[in-house]
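Project standup — Tuesday

K.O.: blocked on the structure for the chain from last sprint. Re-posting the sequence here as requested.
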Amino acid sequence: MKVLHLISGGDTGGAKTHILSLMKELRRLIDAKIICFIEDTFYYDLLKEGINIEVFKQKSRMDMSVTKRLVEEIEGEDYDIIHCHGARANFIAMFLKDRVKKPMVTTIHSDYRLDFNDNIYKKIVFTPLNALALRKFDYYIAISDEFKDMLVERGFSKDKIFVVYNGIDLEEEVKYVSKEEFLKRYNIDAQDKIIVGIIARLDLVKDHETFIKGAKRVLEKRKDVVFLIAGTGKDEARIKNMVKELDIEEYVHFLGYVEDQYSFFNAIDINVLTSLSESFPYAILEGAKLKKPVISTDVGGISHLIEDGYNGWLIRVRDYEALGDRLLYFMENREKIDFMGKNLYKRVEENFSSKSMAKAHYQIYQGIVSKGGN
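H.V.: unblocked you, prediction finished:
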């Protein structure tokens, strides 16, 4: 079986981890290739991992000249399925649909109505274009049951939607620097302090405002804590200004983009995610590899992983008071940090491996091909 994956190529964070984890295992089962449209670190990093990947470079997002090359590639290599990831690939696939008679699948990694909320122009132009493109696909893979329900509520056929939760490779050895070396990199003194971290792009959907307000609530009662924010984005200036206005700059550190995310997870004690919308985020799975408990908003499929009080905590969206209270609980019961972190690792090990994720994709592909793509 031959499957061609299409993706932007400008992807970082969870999207990049998803593709890398999936392709490493899929190549054991099928002939899989990636074509991306931006030549960036995504391409070079996957190339280094031995992934079959090629760049069909676009001059801009609206440059559709790549469709001719894609048609030649698809027909020449006789792929069985075209599998897309993200708005750019979805848009290109819409122009391919009538030119190649192959079943097309797209993975729903996020709520597509929220993807461009941090940019007014992109929200006005690309959100409706992506929504239109999504209607053209034959099948969908949702990253959580909740995302499948979302699609069904919006008029997509439930019979065309599969659910596969993200998985991560727990057997692969991860590289990271020591906690001391990582903190020294940013001139942070965290001696005898609890370290709370969030790693996510700085845009509205990740709701760092709740993280900052939760930090303020903790700091009103205790000062033996530091907060690390890893990531960059369009909401950065506003969030930094908020930290300044709350007069907590001494305790909140902006790290910018952290390339070696496992060094970040190794350094922190508690992992936090405050998103307004998620599917099944790798920020939690990657933290779990290093046995870091998490406090997360109860969005997407996260409740399938996090069990309150056992391997972390779930809070309501924008509930900074609950976030602060849960952090204070950990600080007052430090043994629970290690206890819940180990429990989270076990839960991921038993249910969310990259091998099971790849096997589920393979079974989906088999089912599509057996039906002739219809």
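K.O.: great, moving the ticket to review. The radius of gyration is 21 Å. Residues 35 and 54 are 5 Å apart (CA to CA).
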